[in-house]
Design goal:
- The structure is a single chain.
- The protein has 120 residues and is mainly beta.
- The protein is built from no helices and 11 strands.
- A hairpin with a 4-residue loop joins strand 7 and strand 8.
Length: 120
């Protein structure tokens, strides 16, 4: 099992940058795929970016070219570098860890979320 704690959210002006961090505790971090999701008020939670245990990345269409996900397995941490932020990026950002097993299939773990607010 893994526990996730996000940090780095806050208020930033349009065009600015933020870096989110997600620290994981528990064993086997390097075997988990990791991701960032976000949820704006009244909206469904959506995938922002993900990175597999092998480092393969995937991005939501709305953030491609602006956001970068990375991981440091020596620090049990995943990062989300966010540049050229827009007001529509305002949301609660959640860290996600997932792993597949033959018996359970995909199992997901979530952090508590961190608020990102982009002012126009």
């Amino acid at each position: 099992q893994v526990q996730l704690v996000e940090s780095g959210g806050g208020l930033v002006q349009s065009g600015g940058s933020l870096r989110l961090s997600c620290a994981a505790s528990g064993s086997g971090f390097s075997t988990y795929g990791m991701g960032w999701y976000r949820q704006a008020p009244g909206e469904q939670r959506e995938l922002v970016a993900s990175i597999t245990s092998r480092g393969i990345t995937n991005y939501g269409d709305s953030v491609k070219g602006r956001f970068t996900i990375s991981r440091d397995n020596t620090k049990n941490t995943v990062y989300l570098e966010m540049n050229s932020l827009k007001p529509e990026d305002t949301a609660v950002y959640y860290c996600n860890a997932y792993r597949y097993s033959f018996i359970e299939g995909r199992r997901d773990y979530w952090g508590q979320g961190t608020q990102v607010t982009v002012s126009s």
